[in-house]
Design goal:
heterodimer; A: 344 residues; alpha+beta; 8-stranded mixed β-sheet; 4-stranded antiparallel β-sheet; 12 helices; B: 343 residues; alpha/beta; 5-stranded mixed β-sheet; 3-stranded antiparallel β-sheet; binds iron/sulfur cluster
Amino acid sequence: MEKILTKKSFPNWIAKLATVQIYAPVVKDDLWSYEVVDAAGITTEYTNAIQSPKKIIFPQRELFLEFSHNDNGSPEIRELLPEDKESIIFGIRPCDAKGVSHMDKVFGGDFEDSYYWKRRNQVTLVGVGCNTPPSPNCFCTSVDGSPFSHEGLDVLLTDMGDNYYVQTFTKKGDKLVNMSKGLFAAPKPKEKADLESLHKDAETKLPRHLKDTKKIPPKLKGLFDSEIWDDESMSCIRCGICTYLCPTCHCFDISDEITSHSPLEGKRVRTWDNCQFPDFTMHSSGHNPRPDKASRLRQRIMHKFQYFVEIYNNYQCVGCGRCISKCPVGIDIIQVLEKVRDHV
Amino acid sequence: MVNLDDLKKEALNLLKDEKVKYIIGYTEGSNGTSAAPAFIKNPEDTDKLVWNPGCFHNLTRFLRDEKKRKAREKHPDERPVGIVVKGCDSRAINVLLQEKYIKRDDVFILGVSCESTGVIDEKKVAKKLKGKKAQKIEWDTNRNLVVTTEDGTTKIPADEVLAERCVECPVHSPVVYDIFFGDKIKRTTDAQFKSVEKIENLSQKEKWDFWKKQFDKCIRCYACRSVCPMCYCDECVVDTISFAVTADTTAEEKAQRIKWIEKSPTPSETFIYHIIRAIHLAGRCIDCGECERVCPLDIPIRFLNKKLEKEAKSLFDYEVGFDPDQLSLVSSFKDEDPEDFIR
Ligand code: SF4
Ligand code: SF4
Ligand code: SF4
Ligand code: SF4
């Protein structure tokens, strides 16, 4: 459905939505961050948050189960699913929402991850499109995205000056609009036309570009043993920034956290993990098939631009630019990909 | 002034004469104000070297990689690595020498003086630029940062954009080097520990609240550890396989390994990580400030190291990184060492 909401009515709508928990970008120590907010704290003017809302749907620590020995010595196991709680992520950017839809593919498919889906099904994603790019390293249009893409979104807001143009794409999205029907008007033909030109115009404003992205996946196939990885990873310090901040990186580890040895008590937890850490592929024999940072950079690039493409027919990069902005040594995924693409 | 052409020429000659394996220096970065580390093997690439206020990286960190690479090679090239260092970085070299992690012959040091300034704090500059992207940054001779953006150039006084560690820096120019670039200006500071006072003056409860709030943000990406030249342990307590497993390690040894810390970013684990990191750097940290700079969540972890640096100086008159032959802080004692704080 398509509607117009005046900026004057915007707070009234938000107040209505606030019957459930709302996450939205707020400034925390000078950085934008998605936090639980009350209706008054919501704005549509913010730059890219340092972490995408991935941290809400796929938290860094997920409790799986609790275990203990009961009095007669037999083990007891209790499943710990995320709590029943509906929420809205307000102001998710189109690239980050696309990241969520990529995660859906990973945690859905043949095996449905009940922990992920419990959270995912309870959240409604309200996007705010990007009239101007929110980061100097945005390049969504180079990876099949756009500043107003609605992939993964339930609702998309476009700032039209005095109004928001509101589009809904799912039942969940319709519900949010229907909650306050009286606040919304039907768009006039002129407004529809304006929306289209605004969306087109936004695409021309992207600060960064990667040309011929299509050429990259086939090119990567022949580069497994290339010297390119050594050269490009020389300055990498093998931290977890590029992967932990990425809205599409989803690797995890599962471990048992023992809180008492006698009687035995503990929790099984899932925590984020990432391919840039040396112990990620360490075998218990002591052999590490990815022994150096060259092989780890190769993994990050190949996963995003070859393996994921082969499995899901999508790049596992949505062009948010976080890994570029935050890499401590300036490793720039666009530049690495250009070298891959142009490799002879 | 540091003459970049001199630096390039020296680098060129070193590579041409095959005196060094390669040179670790700085080159233009793709990301606004920051330079980027460069590893230069070919003489013709020495032209890419830069020296500017965005050269904040402590390149001595890459000596860790060099050492590992060398250990893997059957017939390693024994020539030194050329490395560009600032004053603070040069003290890291002294610590690595003191700890016998490297030998003096492993490095050929191209020391550059910070003269009357230092390097910038990117965040301070970004605030001044209000979203505009810098195309070029340089210091002028009157301690101003000259920033070129698409709208022309602006001048910002150095004191408004210098990294805090540069304001508190006791050296400003390399204390160990093979060749020196720039002027050996003697610049002293009476405010070496000024920034920690902010925290010291808090009450215990306020301190707890401050760190609780900061560490709640930590995502345990370990960039603060990974960027540090002194965090070179093969076995780090935070890794899941926290000891070096070899083909000879028995199953029993593996099963009995101690798990020091959980992966969960819960308050207890994150506090432990940061406390261990800080303690392991006591008497070793040379305050290059890299740990704090790289933190994506802007957690001010430099305070922890700075506090320990202050303790070492006030209690034991110990200063880090000036003398490669001095005994280490934590494994030596003097008869006159104070004991009154031991309880
Ligand atoms: S590429 Fe950059 S952010 Fe990623 S692990 Fe290497 S140094 Fe860290
Ligand atoms: S790879 Fe980098 S640019 Fe692409 S989605 Fe991940 S963080 Fe964003
Ligand atoms: S801390 Fe000192 S030596 Fe290091 S960059 Fe700053 S002024 Fe230069
Ligand atoms: S760099 Fe920052 S977020 Fe990463 S582990 Fe260190 S303190 Fe935590």
